[in-house]
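request received
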Amino acid sequence: MIEPRAQRILLVDDDANLLVVLSEQLRDDGYDVETARDGQEALHRLEAGWPDLILLDLMMPKVDGLALARAIKAAADLPIIVLSAIDTADSKARLLDEVAEDYVSKPYHYPELRARIERVLRRLGDRIPRQSLVLGPNLTLDLHRKAATVGGTEVQLTPTESRLLYAMAASLGDTVATETLLARAWTDTEEADASYVWVSIRRLRQKIEVDPDKPVHLLTVRGLGYRLVPSRAENG
Amino acid sequence: MADKPTARESLFELPFRILLTAALILSAVLPLVVFGAILLAARLDTDDRVVVPLLIALMVAAAFFGLLVAAVAVASLTKPLRRITAAVERVAAGESSPPIHLTGDDELARLAESHNRIAAEAQRRNRELGALLRAIAEYSPAQGVAALTARAASDACAIFGLIDAQLRLVDPATVPPAEVIPGDPRPVRAATRAGGETLGLLTGNLPATRSWERADQDLLDLFASEVGVALRNAELFGQIEKQNARLLELDAAKDEFLRGISHNLQTPLTSIRAYVDQLRSSSVEAAKDRRLQIVAEQADRLTRLVRQLLTVTRLEAGVLRPEVEVIALGLRVRRAWEALNAATVDFELRDLARGWLAVGDPDQLDQVLWALLDNALKYGGREGKIEVEVAADEATSRLHLTITDHGSGISAADRKRVFTRFTRGAAQTSGDGTGLGLYVSRQLLRKMGGELTLEPAGQGSGATFRITLPGEPPGDEG
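response:
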């Protein structure tokens, strides 16, 4: 890992105890950590400069977490991991999909949280616009809201499926190695192997290909990995 | 006289028509016969060849005439009688009968008139009964006492042709009957009863021109008691509705409380867990400190219990949504087992489905595995052996996972209710769980398209739980 500077994380939570211990844990792992007790304070911190990642509790006084996340996403594609009590996610599940890259429920296990942070930061270079990606007459991806439109019908993607597609869409048309996909879609703590990628791609084809047995968008490159391509009709 | 009633009765039992005919014939013919007989006796010695045949002819003619008169008289008498009889029979059979019109002012005409009046009233009561039955058929407990009271009063007016009517929920004994004044509207009343209890009083006024007889009172009483039953039902319904609303309120309050308290438990737990993690990673001695390890384990255990409580409230609220991923079941079981820190217990995992991946929500599956393994530990005894087997059914593309302990097993009575909430094995009433594990596990698995069942097993050989989940066959690059 050759980093020009430590990656910066803004930690927003109204639990003072948590701010102290979690920022210490993150600093021990080499991150540059700033903290904020509520949404307002977080916005002040953002004025001074953008972090690489925001860790955000949804339940906060003053500006609530969801409003803050939306404000941030409206300004820039800053990755957000929501760190919140497990029941908070229910009522806002779909909204979470729109604003958060990932979700970790409290009480968290630090190794798990760190693995999620690493996975999100890993794709920092892969910026793709937060808008519809039209790959052909029968496939449009809306990865920012974990959805795809297949032959006119919208289908929901799981977080893993949208992470896989995100990684392939970032190098549209090029082969992405199976190992890369594995690292982008799963965390180190999940003990996933290549078969996870194979099976997930097979399931993904069932969802986004009109004929899953004759894929036109999600192609296998034998021995190497997979490619996401626009359909021929779109090319020609 | 006293010794002849049977004879008289049998005489009157002869058909009326025959009696009448005989009487008429006798009254017309007898005087002639007597007269002829006297004449014949007086002139028997004279050989009058003119008088005797003439007399005989006269007698025959008289007899004939008498018969004729009798026939006509009988016919004119019995015809209206037959009409009245037929009409009365129709009314008796419950049919409607057109009025009979007889000229004159004799007994028959009056009889016909009486019949007409009776028939009309019977018809009116029939109509009233029909209207009554239709009205009460529409009474429903859901309408409420107040609406039913108002409706019953207006129905009473419509059914019985009352000028006005009122239904009050008072004791009839406290309301003295109104005086009947000839020429004024006639007051009527009936008590509304249900199951031997008097609920109220129905009063009203009848137009002065209308008759009011025993049968009318009976109908009004019938109506009032039906209204009484409807009112009682409405009252009970209202009470049940109220209780229901109260129970729903309490249930929502309970869910809210549970959600709130579980949520608030998570915050300190998060800090405890984080500080222990940090302590243990800060120095080599601390990492080895058994006491810190126990704090971490117990915090984790508490976390799992709180999460189970939260899952129940989310299941109840219907907000739970599985986020489906592919999972290597065997690895997941191994990790769940390690999280329980029960190294002293003999644990055997047989994975007969290598390469297969289960399809389910990883977090929720963890909850299920923790609950089942924790149960196996609790009921199988810490010294027992826990066996887990993962197998694939290729035909149905489903994965089967069985968890077997070698404890005392589950009694027949408990088998039926282990999957209901707050149920613990009878042998383990002092258990430290929430009593929610199996219930939550089954609900979670079903939401993922899976199932949780208890395998039939002999007494003493422990218990085996079977999880099934949708599976994906081993994949390749294609």
